Amino acid sequence: AIQKDLPPFCITRSSTSNTLIGLNVIGLRRAGVSPSERQQLKQALRLLYLSGLSTPDAIAKLEQELPSPLVQELCGFVRQSQRGICKFFRRGSDRSGNRDDDF
Hints:
4 helices
């Protein structure tokens, strides 16, 4: 089983990998989450996982810059995690190392 906490609204590669592969867009659509709220969650995950900031610094920045209730729920979950959160598994990348579709 997963040894770390999987942030809300996210999906994992397998039940044993401890890696997050992205946002659960299909589940969010089915739950009626608006496109703008989904975009804010994507921005939050990019900042949390790809910005190079420490987790506490990224959470503090998210709480200030993205006041969405769903982003705040994500921040609260990460703050309260006792085991730490799953790492991000980055699928293949182009020569520059960038992917537009990471989340």
